[in-house]
Specification:
- This protein is mainly α and 143 residues long.
- Helix 2 crosses helix 3.
- The longest helix has 59 residues.
- About 3% of the residues have low confidence.
């Protein structure tokens, strides 16, 4: 290519490459930035999942410890004896068993009929000492 008469080259081919290089650089930086953010977010998710799993492991280890203690207790003679008596209603030879009925059922005090409104006292009128309360309970009037 011959040089122009005043000694300058034509610059048109070099100027047209700079905008293309700039756009390509911006695209590469954008791609790298998006990839970095995405991987950082994935790493945070993995860390959260690891923390959740560690919490579950600690809870399971606590349950395991409790179960191991229960197994050791049941393997001991006293624990086995207690389980046989409590759950299977077993007893040792020569032992006498006394059954107390009424536990867990309504007590006799709860089955009494309520005091008629004419004989009842308000909370302010109730006697404050225990003997006076018992007297009121049985005779429905205060001293």
């Amino acid at each position: 290519m011959p040089l122009p008469a005043h000694g300058l080259r034509e610059e048109t081919p070099h100027r047209s490459r700079w905008p293309l290089f700039f756009v390509a650089s911006v695209a590469v930086f954008f791609f790298i930035g998006v990839s970095t953010v995405r991987e950082t977010y994935r790493a945070l998710q993995v860390d959260d999942e690891i923390k959740g799993l560690e919490t579950q492991v600690n809870a399971m280890e606590g349950k395991k410890t409790k179960l191991m203690q229960a197994i050791q207790e049941l393997n001991s003679p006293d624990g086995l004896d207690r389980a046989a008596r409590g759950q299977l209603d077993m007893r040792k030879p020569g032992e006498r068993v006394i059954v107390v009925r009424g536990i867990g059922e309504k007590s006799a005090l709860n089955q009494l009929e309520p005091v008629p409104p004419s004989l009842s006292l308000s909370q302010a009128e109730l006697p404050q000492t225990t003997p006076k309360r018992w007297f009121y309970y049985f005779f429905h009037f205060s001293l």
